[in-house]
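[scheduler] slot 2 assigned
[scheduler] job type: sequence-to-structure, two independent chains
[scheduler] chain ordering preserved from manifest
[runner] begin chain α
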Amino acid sequence: MPSAARAQSVSKSAWAQFPASSVVARLASAGDAVDVERNTLIYRQAHRADRVFYVEAGLVKIDNASPEGRHAVIALLGAGAFFGESCLAGYGARKTSARALADSRLVSIRKSTMRGLLRSDFDVSRYFTEYMIRRLARAEEDLIDLRVNSVERRLARALLVLASMDEEARSQPVLAAVNQQTLAEIVGSTRPRINLLLSKFRRRGYVSGKGPLKVSSSLVNVLLRDKAVRGA
């Protein structure tokens, strides 16, 4: 299995068997439902951290800005994801910003309430812990990708991951909500460089030439080619 898909598949069979619907219902009853329109800021870096969020539907971008104004996308999170969880570890201020890239429905849970659920509800605790383990595995792979792979390979991997999120999305397409600037911030490059690489991918048939961006499974050849070159 290609590395881009592997991060999405950690313990996937076990995850599918877990009674997620009942846990989601408990999370919803413990928090407040929040409907967020596309491009709306949910919270800003350095703001007070006192709530955990759960994504019922939509797409949320988590990013960080340096003092010099440089931005890096930390994660794109779809339905079933938690964010803002660092407040549970005692952080009083947000280390990142969160923005809805598509119309989203969230559950906002007070820090004290979430801590209580994790202590008293085994199913919620297990669901949250397994999710965070999956997220950590993905973060480690992202870091390795950033340190050792070319921009072309990083972009190919990012597009394949987003395409896999599209397959799991129940409503709005994920790829349609991601522009070239966001792709640049995900892979650690510039928008002009991303534009050139997307043009190259289009010529080779890896992504759609017209209309909304669509990714062909043949894009995995970029990952396999680089792996073969390194192994030669």
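[runner] end chain α
[runner] begin chain β
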Amino acid sequence: MRRSHFSLLFALGLPLAALWPSAASAQVVTAGTDSVRVASQPAAIDSTRRTERLLGMRVTRPQKAALLALMLPGAGQVYNHRYWKLPLVYGGLGGVGYGLFFYQTRYREYADGKNQLIANPNMDISKLDGERVSQETSAANVQRGVNFYRRNRDTFIAYTAVVYGITILDALVDAHLRNFDVSDDLSLRLDPALLPSPGQAPRAGLALTLYMK
């Protein structure tokens, strides 16, 4: 069985820029009669090529998935053919959306009641518009209700933004990993290694090696 491996090297103190591949190169494997030459090919994998179009622009697959998810929740998951995620997307957004609607409605009721009391300080609280605010016993309780519902409304605005962002990030990552090989023929090992350093003696480091059988 021929085994080839690709190593991702993490050196102690090795600059990050030195680890970033700048161009594709040919690989020569010399192992007796089985020596082969792998032709040079573009270093960019499929997820980094601008092979897709969106609104007249050439974009990569991850970019298109993220933009679709940004424009319409769930569209990125549909583009990635992850239909089973749609209930999670709309369930999450529906949950935080309901909470936002609930607290915004209560906040408006108490805020309107407060404004009525400001306009007419002698007004009986039981005469205020709104089923809940009219049951309060004092103007101070009305103010506390305004603060409570406003605080929770703002919290759910943040929750909505977080869930919306997660759906976009999920579509982006899913598009990047769509062609990622997770078969049983892969193995990953972390081993000590001596890593070359330009103009200096080799440094001790770690080699993260991916073996493909």
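[runner] end chain β
[qc] chain β: Confidence is low (pLDDT under 50) at residues 1-44.
[scheduler] slot 2 released
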